[in-house]
Design a protein that fits this description.
Layout: H1 2-15, E1 48-52, H2 75-82, H3 100-104, E2 120-124, E3 128-133, E4 139-143, E5 160-167, E6 170-176, E7 196-203, E8 208-216, E9 225-226, E10 230-234, H4 257-262
Parallel strand pairs: 4-5
Antiparallel strand pairs: 1-2, 1-10, 2-3, 3-4, 5-6, 6-7, 7-8, 8-9, 8-10
């Protein structure tokens, strides 16, 4: 982690964005510092590297869940939640947790991947928007070619996503077919194969992005779970993503030996 530590400190020294914590810059180093100019949002464009920042004063912020109050669960959802032993919210130690991201390096899924405090980059092809996550080489494809969500989707770690522009600065993504082994957050709320996630990306101006997330699952949730708003800041134009590998950078699997033996 020597490289990561040096990179993060370099980023803070260079940019000094207010309200941003160290980890939010990830491990990449810009090849050339080019300051971004504030101004109006570009038309139908989310290109660039985005890093999560604090919201306005008083805004809810958590590293483990979406809302101050827990979601309203069905009986099925309550039973599944009772089996979770999360460590991110502090309820269990690493040696006790059964969080699949920590114990098995499973991908976090959508929308949990936003809790990982590393940036993501958005690029486009002629038919899709691609999200490249610094965390664990995650690649997410959001198809923009007019297709609809599949009725009988193949279960994927990041689901099957389609998106469209609602207006010149608002992009809406709907995702279905999210692998049931993922959790909806870091606290252990689990979902069925019926989970549908809707994300609304709103580019406020040239430098700032807001994301609203709604989770719907008729089997696990008694009502939709509407997340508190997420806030992102655009990195300098030549910022380059590095990598954070689940298996190699920050986990000691010796902590989980007892859990793996039980399994």
């Amino acid at each position: 982690m020597r490289h990561a530590t040096t990179s993060i400190l370099t980023a803070v020294a260079i940019f000094g964005f207010s309200g941003v914590t160290l980890a939010q810059f990830g491990t990449g180093i810009p090849t050339q510092v080019e300051e971004r100019e504030d101004g109006p949002a570009p038309v139908r464009d989310l290109t660039g590297v985005w890093t999560r920042v604090d919201g306005p004063e008083g805004a809810f912020s958590s590293g483990s869940t979406w809302t101050p109050e827990p979601p309203v669960l069905t009986e099925w959802g309550q039973e599944r939640f009772a089996t979770a032993r999360d460590s991110n919210a502090g309820s269990f130690s690493l040696a006790e947790t059964n969080d699949p991201v920590l114990t098995r390096c499973y991908p976090p899924g959508v929308p949990r991947i936003y809790f990982h405090p590393y940036p993501f980059e958005i690029v486009y092809t002629d038919k899709e928007m691609i999200m490249l996550f610094e965390y664990d080489h995650m690649i997410r494809r959001i198809y923009m070619d007019g297709r609809e969500n599949p009725e009988d989707p193949v279960m994927l770690w990041l689901g099957n996503s389609v998106g469209e522009w609602a207006d010149d600065t608002t992009f809406v993504i709907t995702t279905v077919g999210i692998d049931e082994r993922t959790w909806m957050d870091r606290s252990g709320y689990q979902h069925s194969d019926q989970l549908k996630v809707t994300e609304v990306f709103h580019r406020v101006d040239n430098l700032n992005l807001e994301i609203d997330i709604t989770l719907e699952d008729p089997i696990a949730l008694a009502e939709p779970w509407v997340a508190e708003k997420l806030y992102y800041r655009l990195a300098p134009s030549n910022w380059e993503l590095s990598e954070i590998s689940c298996s190699g950078d920050y986990l000691d699997f010796g902590e989980f030996e007892s859990f793996l033996e039980e399994e």
